[in-house]
Amino acid sequence: MKIACIGGGPASLYFSLLAKKSHPDWDVTVYEQNPDNVTWGFGVVFSDETMENFKDADYETYKAITDSFVHWDDIDVFHKGQKITSSGHGFAGMQRLKLLQILEARAKELGVTMVHDVIVDSLDDHQDADLIVAGDGIASFIRDQHVDEFGSDVVMRPNKFTWLGSTKAFDTFTFYFNKNDDGLFRAHCYQYLPGQSTFIIETTEDTWRKAGLDKATEEDTVAYCSKVFEKELGDDHLITNNSVWRTFPRVKNAKYYHKNIVLLGDALHTAHFSIGSGTKLAMEDAVALHEAMEENPGDLSKALPAFQEKREPDVDSLQRAAQVSMEWFENVERYHEVMEPMQFSYALLTRSLRINHENLGLRDKDLLDQVDNWIADKAAEQSGVAREKETPPPIFTPFKLRDMVLENRIAVSPMCMYSAEDGLIGDWHLVHLGSRAMGGAGLIMSESTAISRDGRITPGCAGMYNDDHVPAWSRVVDYVHQNSGAKIGMQLSHAGRKASTKLQWEGGEQAPLTDGEGAWPIMAASPMPYSANNPTPKEMTRDDMDQVRDDFVAAARRAEQAGFDMIELHCAHGYLLNTFISPKTNTRSDKYGGSMENRLKYPLEVFKAMRAVWPAEKPMSVRVSANDWIEDGITPIDTVEIAKAFKAAGCDILDVSSGQVVSEEQPEYGRLFQLPFSDLVRMEADMPTMTVGNIQSYADANSIIASGRGDICVIARMHLFDPYWTRHAANELGYDMEMPNQYKSVQEYTPRWT
User: Fold this and answer.
1) Per the domain annotation, does 144 fall within a domain?
2) 688: pLDDT confidence band, cut at 50, 70 and 90?
């Protein structure tokens, strides 16, 4: 086989030596534009875990690389004059040039042909190659020539950064956050050779321009940055190596190969420098491609798809981690002023979700204990509840909204059961909600509860639209209050254009009822059907708006009669009030359409009317869709404005969800995928939040609370799977949670799970 590797970075070099090692008879050539022993940048970072993955691929390379490492275990975060140190992380750094030299030397030893100082800008001279490896970096010309075929997606991120070096020898991975009159600068620093360190400086474009760095030479950059970090550098100085200011390109590709061309490394994907995984990804690409070719000998038509199938899940996972890490650093101004050093440092350490509460405890128990104590102190201050003798995990700290005090931060999400009759709930709802209260959750939310018969999603939806509903709900509320420490809230809604559909297991929201099945009229802000399957709703008149507002008020009154501790106004997921808020569902030309201010008028009117009759000592929340997941829809930034408007109207906490507004949405699912929206609202609107979205583990829930990204974790599917999720969390975390008298016999019981 004849293989041409375009680009002499870690991906191409590592693949070339692996291929040649397995097949000495293959013709493998690497073409690199830089002269021999020349590269840009300073150091690269590996975790101890990463290097173990390379041991079996080629031990000689592994040994040469690890012998060149500078090791450290600690991360230092400097914030507001304090240093917070976290141990147990296991990192190693080395000179980028040294890494390339090791890989190239090993490749040559195995018989790979190296061609330096040649710019390849066309594949015409490589038509005879059986395989072309595009390892030509972030600005890959090969990728750019086949954008459609690869499904390339390159996004230039907003921040500016410059990759500098320093003579300062860092013995930890160090983060500095220094502010001057121009703005905030962050520095990512680590040692890669004795007495030599990488010193990446990052800032916003606004600060960069204000500082005049948009016109700076390398010398100007060094002079300015040396002043910003004068105290930290001391007698040491900064070093340049093609240290121009750049913007980071986030690179993704839907397809990893085209014909006989395969992308590797930065040409295929990028990972922000804040997680230090670009070289790791590149070398792991090389291993995966080599393995796929060995498993499909002589058949690239099978090997290249196998490579993508094998590699894509890991790449997607790491890119998601890199994305949230990148966004944290891009928006660090959001946290810098309002957070105290302990929480700020914890938020930094857990930003990418690769380290969560549990994992941090395994690395550095002393630091985790400090974090837990800090959170417990703040919770006691916020709630007025005296601290427990033993420091609780963050999710087991109290939280207060008006006069309602939750004993922990776990809430059962509103989940439709489709088991009511003309809105009237029964035994199913008592057992469903009662069991979750017994299961230890601090807050139980009713399912989406209709404020009118025509406001139901389906014939099986719960209601609070006539007086007969009150005793049925009172039965549930009384049970929760009498048999648990939980509080219970009611979510009130009108389904709007999603009304009059079949039960979820009969087709759901895109399966409308027929007249013969008892269909009822539907309405919305504008006459736009939810999908091609759904009927067109009536555009609401002012009379309709008055009636719906009054129905919400009447339902709020009934919720108070039933004894609920809290009510929530549903303004999300494409239901009636949400159709006013989203520009994708509101095309009105009156005062309720057009600008955000106008689109919010009616939902705010409804909220204020409910707030006026709801007891002042009891809290109200609003559920919003923070992202419509479609072009020209509501964005997370819009949601900050929405949050501020509801806060001014008396909303105590925002329940931050997303999507389900339009049927053609394109959400980006993943672990904790909606958490950034809660984080944004909490920080930018200065408002407590309930956060939702694929929260599954106790460790993740603890991380959310401890990092200040949400105040209450709202959990749905895990509560369907395990009604006693919160109690099991307490057991797992060693927290002594009060048991009902009937269950106290199991306090000393140790369950066997296998």
Assistant:
1) yes
2) very high
Query: Using alpha carbons only, what angle is made at residue 281 by residues 277 and 286, rounded to the nearest 5 degrees?
Result: 150
Q: What is the pLDDT of residue 294?
A: 97
Q: What is the SS3 assignment for 311?
A: helix
Q: Write the CB contacts of 363 (distance below 8 Å, at least 6 apart in sequence).
A: 86, 87, 88, 89, 355
For CA atoms 162, 168, 169, 173, the dihedral sign is negative
Decide if 349 is inside a domain: no
Among the listed residues 227, 214, 221, 224, the one whose alpha carbon sits nearest the alpha carbon of residue 240: 221
C-alpha 713/C-alpha 411 separation (Å) is 6
The DSSP output letter for 501 is B
Tokens of 427: 């035994």
pLDDT cut 90: percent of the chain above it: 86
Largest interatomic CA distance in the chain: 85
**Whether residue 107 is found in the same domain as residue 242:** yes
Q: What distance in Å separates the CA atoms of residue 350 and residue 359, rounded to the nearest whole number?
A: 9
The one-character DSSP state at 236 is: -
437 and 318, same domain (yes or no): no
326 shares its domain with 405: no
Which of the listed ranges 45-54, 186-195, 662-671, 743-752 does the model predict with the highest average pLDDT? Answer: 186-195
- Helices assigned H by DSSP within 297-426: 300-330, 333-336, 341-349, 357-363, 365-383
CA 325 – CA 752 distance, rounded (Å): 38
Catalytic residue among 14, 257, 335, 575: 575
Euclidean distance between CA atoms 345 and 357, whole angstroms: 13
How far is the C-alpha of 242 from the C-alpha of 249, rounded, in Å?
17
Is residue 174 assigned to a domain?
yes
> Is 735 an active-site residue?
no
Whole-structure pTM value: 0.92
Indicate if 314 and 429 belong to the same structural domain.
no
Domain that holds residue 503: 398-738
| CATH number of the domain within which 422 lies | 3.20.20.70
Domain count across the chain: 2
515: pLDDT strictly greater than 80: yes
Contact 538/514 with Cβ under 8 angstroms? no
| Residue-level pLDDT at 525 | 98
Same domain, 27 and 163: yes
Per DSSP bridges, beta strands 2-6 and 131-134 are: parallel
Question: Can you read off the two tokens belonging to residue 349?
Answer: 């350490």
User: Do 200 and 283 reside in the same domain of the chain?
Assistant: yes
Average pLDDT in the 249-264 region? 97
Which pLDDT score, from 0 to 100, does residue 389 have?
A: 86
Q: Is 568 helix (H, G, I), strand (E, B) or coil?
A: strand
Give the span between the Cα atoms of 330 and 353, in whole angstroms: 16
- How far, in Å, CA of 511 to CA of 498, rounded? 10
Q: Are 567 and 492 a contacting pair, CB within 8 Å?
A: yes
Under 8 Å between Cβ of 246 and 159? no
We report the CATH number of the domain holding residue 78 as: 3.50.50.60
Query: CA 561 to CA 542: how far, in whole Å?
Result: 29
Q: Percentage helix, strand, coil, to 5, in the chain?
A: 40, 20, 40
User: What is the per-residue pLDDT across 327-374, written as a single tens digit (0 to 9) for each?
Assistant: 999 999 999 999 999 999 999 999 988 899 999 999 999 999 999 999
Q: Which of 299, 330, 361 is at the close of a domain?
A: 330
Measure CA 434 to chain center.
Answer: 32
- Whether 407 and 520 map to the same domain: the answer is yes
Cα atoms in the 13 Å half-sphere on the side-chain side of 380: 12
If you write DSSP's letter for every residue of 579-609 in order, what string do you get? HHH-TTT----STTSSSHHHHHHHHHHHHHH
CA distance 141 to 143: 5
Q: Is residue 360 part of a domain?
A: no
Q: Are 290 and 15 in contact (CB under 8 A)?
A: yes
Q: Do residue 403 and residue 294 come from a single domain?
A: no
